[in-house]
Amino acid sequence: MNKVTNVFWIAIVLIALAVGYGALAPEHFAEVTGNMESFLTTSFGWYYLLIVSVMVIFCLYFLVSPMGQIKLGKDTDKPEYSFATWIAMLFSAGMGIGLVFWGAAEPLSHFAIDPATAEPGSQEAFRESMRFTFFHWGIHAWAIYAVVALSLAYFQFRKGEPGLISSTLRPLFGDRMKGPWGVLVDVIAVFATAVGVATTLGFGAIQINGGLAYLFDGIPEDSLITQIIIIAVVTVLFMVSSWSGISKGIKYLSNTNMVLAITLLILVIVLGPTLLIFNMFTDSLGSYFQNLINMSFRAAPINGENRSWIDGWTIFYWAWWISWSPFVGIFIARVSKGRTIREFLFGVLLIPTFISFIWFAAFGTTAIDVQSSGVDLTGLLTEETLFAVFNELPLGMLLSIVAVLLISTFFITSADSATFVLGMQSSNGSLDPANAVKLTWGIAQSTIAVILLFAGGLGSLQTALIIAAFPFSFIMLLMMASFYKALNLEYKAIKRKR
C-alpha cells in the first residue's frame, strides 16, 4: 500500500519543469503566467463567482438535509480526535499563516490604499474594508475546502475507496478512474499541493524575516541568507513532526497554534481599541449578511475600475482557495473520520468562518485605528504591517514575539500536513505513507522555495498555481455531482430498510 505510484513520478517531473522554468527564465515565466492569469480572471471571473456560490449552496443544503445524519465512516466509527483538537487541526491547515499575514494588511489596504468602491480613508471605506475581508475569508473559502474534504471523507471512510481525488469520481466514471484519467486528476492535486506549500514556505520565510528584522536591529531586512536559514530550520522541525505522525506531531502543533492564536487575539483586543473592535465586529457582521448575495455575484461588467478590483481581490481569492483545496481538503478528510455529515459541515463551514471574522475585526480595526491616528502604514511591506501596528500598542514587543512564534508554528504545521498529504497521494491513498516518501516531499518543497527565492520566481509560481485552479474547478463540479449521486442512492436504500 505504501508503494510509490506513477502519480509521484509524473508530478515530480512537472514540478521540476515549472520550477526550472521559473528559476532559469524568471522574467519570461512571470510574463507568460501573468498573461494567462489575466486572461482567466478577465474572461472567466463570472464563472468563478458562480461556481463558488454553488459550492456554498451545496454545503448549506447538506448541512440541513436529512442526509446530514449519515456518518463519514461506518455507523460504529467514532471520531479520532476531540472536537477542539479537530477544529485546531483543520483551522491550522486551512487558514493559519494567512490570517497572521493578512490580518492587519488586508483591511488596511481596503481602507487606505485600494477600497472596493469608497473614497480611501473615508468612513464608508472603513465599513467596506471589513465587509469585504469577511467575504474573502468567510464561508465561501471554507465551502471550497468542504466540497473536497466531504466528498473524499465519504468515499474513503464510508465506501472504503482509496484516499485519492480520483476515487471520488468513480460513481460517475467507474473503473476509468483507475486508468490515465484518474492519474491526471491525482497529478493535478499533487502539483497544486506541492507548489502551494512551497510558495507558502517562501512567503512565510519572508514574513518571519520581516518580523525579526523589525524586532532586532542586527537582522537584515529581506535577506536571502536569513530566509534560507529560516526555511532550513523549519524543514528540520516539520520533518521531525512528520516522522512522528498525525496523532502526535500535527495534533500537538495544531493545539499549540490555537493556544498562541487565542492568546494573541485576546491581547490585541485588550490592548487595542477594545470598544471599537466589538462595535466593528457587530456592525461588519450585519453588513456582511446584508450584502452577502450582492458580493457573491458582483461582476461589475460596466464599471471597469470596480471590475479590476474584483479581478484583483475576489476572483484572485476564489482561484487561490480552489488551488489550495486539494491539500486542505485531503487533510481535513483524513482527520474527520467518524463524524456525521452535519457535524462535519458545522465544524468546517461555520466555526472557522466565525473565528476568522473575530480575528479580522480585531487586527483590521486596530490597524485602521493606528492609520487614522496619524501613523502612515500604507508605505510598508505587507510582512511589516502587523509589526508596525504592534509597535503602536502597549507591550508591542511581547505581541511581536508571540506573532513570530505563531507564524513559525503555523508554518511548520502547514508544511507537515502537506508532507503527509503528498505522501498519501503518491502512495495510492495510504493512510500511513512511508516516512521515506514524506521525507522526499519535505525536502522537495523546501528546495523549491529556496530556488525560487534565489531566482525571484516565487510570485510567478504562485500565479501558475492559481492558473491550475481553473481545470481543478471542473473536477470539483464533478466531485459534487458524484457525491450527491452516491449519497442519494445510499439514503434511499436506508429509507427503504426502515
Automatic annotation (TrEMBL):
- Keywords, comma-separated and alphabetical: Cell membrane, Membrane, Transmembrane, Transmembrane helix, Transport
Give its localization: Cell membrane
Q: What PROSITE patterns does the record tag this protein with? A: BCCT
Membrane disposition: Multi-pass membrane protein
* One Gene Ontology molecular-function label: transmembrane transporter activity
> Among its keywords, does the record have Transport?
yes
* InterPro entries recorded: BCCT_CS (IPR018093), BCCT_transptr (IPR000060)
Which GO cellular component does the record give, naming just one? plasma membrane
Mind telling me which residue stretches traverse the membrane in this protein? 7-24, 44-63, 83-105, 134-155, 183-204, 224-246, 258-281, 315-333, 345-368, 395-415, 436-458, 464-487
| NCBIfam families in the cross-refs | bcct
Question: What's the family?
Answer: Belongs to the BCCT transporter (TC 2.A.15) family.
Q: Which PANTHER family is this protein grouped with?
A: HIGH-AFFINITY CHOLINE TRANSPORT PROTEIN, HIGH-AFFINITY CHOLINE TRANSPORT PROTEIN-RELATED
Q: What is this protein called?
A: Glycine/betaine ABC transporter permease
Q: What organism is the protein native to? A: Planococcus maitriensis
